[in-house]
Amino acid sequence: MNLVTFSGPPSSGKTSIILKTIEALKMRGVSVGVVKFDCLYTDDDILYEKANVPVKKGLSGSLCPDHFFVSNIEEVVQWGKKLDLDLLITESAGLCNRCSPYIKGIKSVCVIDNLSGINTPKKIGPMLKSADIVVITKGDIVSQAEREVFLSRVNSVNPRAISMHINGLTGQGAYELSTLLYDEDENIDTVQGKELKFPMPSALCSYCLGETRIGEAYQMGNIRKMKLGDEDEK
């Protein structure tokens, strides 16, 4: 079984791209399943079910969705193998723009949209910087010049990745992506012992443990303070 991880900011078009790509994969006889990771709510699983795609969803609740992802990915892989899937896709929203659920040796795809602003690629962090493939969406809404500027910003952040435009509505470009995702010679039996491409943020502070009061008296553990003194004005 192949394993591919999709991530990207919320509402960037991940689910639409995945659905169009699955259509192209099914035309080649590839069986695909999806596991959707999110925080509080998602109805994307309904969309996958309507497309006759085996799907499971996991809601992290108060936990970081990407930490939740890593804690469950081995069980997710075994679920995919139990269904005898050719390809298992995981979808996760990088809500803090800092986390990255990418695993070394596993294909990683970052979905980002043209409408997010030309400086957005610099703000996303390892979710974009360590991706193998970058999919840029909503190009039909902006001009050719805007698409080229945005693409250049993406390439400056991650010059090693394959960058491509895909239309989530028409599916234009989805077939090309499908050829990059599935390799019949690859086989993942387990991710046990594999490593993340990039370490996630680690902090244990009073707010992580449920504190709600504001002020230094209530701040303990891993705390970082801004410098707001006169030296910053010089």
Structure commentary:
The chain has 234 residues and is an alpha/beta fold. The protein has a single domain, classed as Rossmann fold (3-Layer(aba) Sandwich), CATH 3.40.50. The protein has a 7-stranded parallel sheet, sandwiched between helices. Helix 1 crosses helix 7. The mean pLDDT is 89.
* Rounded radius of gyration (Å): 19 Å
Give the CATH topology.
Rossmann fold
Enumerate how many helices there are, as a single number: 7
Assess the beta-strand content as a share of residues.
15-25%
**Largest sheet report:** 7 strands, parallel
What is the total number of structural domains?
A: 1
Element-level helix/strand string:
EHEHEHEEHHEHEH
N-to-C terminal Cα separation, in Å?
Answer: 58 Å
In total, the number of strands is 7
Write the layout of secondary structure elements.
Blueprint (H helix, E strand, L loop, with lengths): L1 E7 L5 H14 L4 E7 L5 H7 L4 E5 L5 H18 L4 E7 L13 E7 L6 H5 L1 H4 L3 E5 L6 H14 L4 E4 L8 H8 L53
Parallel strand pairs: 1-4, 1-5, 2-3, 2-4, 5-6, 6-7
Helix pairs in contact: 1-7
Quick rundown:
By secondary structure, the chain is an alpha/beta fold.
Q: How would you describe this structure in keywords?
A:
234 residues, alpha/beta, Rossmann fold, 7 helices
